[in-house]
Amino acid sequence: MMDGVPGATPRAGWAQGLRLVGPDEPQTRCKLCFQGVRADLGELFEYVVDPASEVYCAHFFCLLFSAGLEQTGQDDEGIQGFLLPDILREWRRGQRLKCVHCDRKYATLGCRDKTCRKTFHLPCARDHGDGLQFCDDFASFCREHRPRQQGQFPAEGSEEAVCGVCLEIMNQPANCLWGPCCQGWYHQDCIQRLANTAGYFFKCPLCNNKDAFVREMQLFGIFVPEQDAAWEMEEDAFESLLERHAPCDAPNCACPDGRDHDEDDTPWETILCRCCGAKAIHLECAQKVPLPVGSSERHTWTCSDCRAVLRARPPSYTNHYRRVRNESHVASNQLSGLLTRVRFQVSGSLSSPQLSVRHANLELSINNVPESSESEPGILSSSNGSVHPRDEDPVISLSPPKKIQMLKPVVLTRKSPQKRSKKARPAGRSRKITQTSDKEKSVRQTSILQFCVSSK
Fold it and tell me: Higher confidence at residue 246 or residue 450?
C-alpha cells in the first residue's frame, strides 16, 4: 500500500505490530521527513501491518506537527494515539506538498499564519530556524512569521551574555532563549538537554521558576517530556543516602580495634559532626578534642572544618527596634476595662430622679441641677478637691429637682491622692449670659457639683 516511499526495506522475520527503532538501524527512515533516528525529532516508531506491503514509519514529532493529522486514539492504539488510517491519509496529502527549504515532497508542516502558504519538513524547520510550539495544538511557523521573545539580547562581552546552564559565552542570538522569570539567557541546545534530563522537574536553572519558564520554553521550541527525571530512573540511584560515615576521623584515634570499630553505648561509639554529618569520632577520642563554642555536652561534636566556618561567620544581627505593644499591654487592658465596666442606672421617683454610675474606685454625686432651656457650660466644684480610693466599687448618683441639664463632657484623670489648690478665675473673664424673662429667672436655682469619696 505504501510501496515506493523511502523507508525500511522489508526483511524476513519481521514481526507485526509497533516497535521502537534503535540508533543501530540507519537504513530505517521516517516516511514523512526521510530522516533516521535523531534526538531532536523525537522517537522513531515503526508499525508493521504486512511486511511485504504495508509498513508505517514516522518520528513522533513529525506526527505531532503534521497540520492535517489529529491524535484521535488512545496512547496504546496505532503510533502513540495516531491511528494508522489517519497517518495514511496525511501521508497521501503530503504527496502534493513541497518543502520551501529542500523542495522535496511530503512537507506536512505548514505556517500557522493565515496569509502564508509555506510548507516544510520538520528537520528543515529545525535547521532553518522556523518556529515550533510544543504545547496546545503544536503550531508551526515559518521564519518570517514566527513569534519573537520580548527579551533583548545582551551586549557582547557583558555578564548577561553567558548561558545559565553551561556558563559559556553566547554569540548567536538566533540559537538562544530568554527566560521571562529572571531575564536569563540560555543556549537552546542546553535547555533541551536539561528538559530531557529533568522531565517533570524541569524548571528555570537560575531562579527555579516552573510555570512561566516551562510555558515560555514550550512556546519557543523546547519539548518537555512527560517522564520522571533521569536521576530517579537509575537503578539504586538513592542507595548512597542510606550509608552513614562510620570511621573515626580523630587525628590520633585511641580505639584499640581501629578507626572502623563502632559499638553502641560504649566509649567506642562513633558520633557524627553536629553541623555537616560528614565526619565522625569516637566518644573517647572526642574527650581530647576541645568543645565547640556554646556546647556543654561531650556527645555533641563539631569537626575542624565546621569550626573554622563558625569562627569566620559574621556576628549575629541585633534587633534595635522595640516590639509593638499589643492587646496584652497593661494600658490597653485598663482602657478596655474602663469602657466595658461602666454601668449607668436611673432610679427614684419623678420628683427626685437619681442617676448612678459605678466604676473602679470613684463615687460621683451631682445634686440641685437647675432647670433651664439653655445649653450653658456647667460649673464644677469639689467639696475637698481630692479623690480617695476605696475598697469596693463606688456609686455615682445624680439628683436634679426636675430636669437634667446637659453638661459638656469632662475627662477625669486619676492621679495620686494629694490635695490641690483651686485656681481662681482670671480677672476680666466673663460668660455670655442670655437675657431671660422674670418667670425664667425665678425657676433658676443654684447648682452644686460635688465629688464625694466614701468607703464602706
Answer: 246
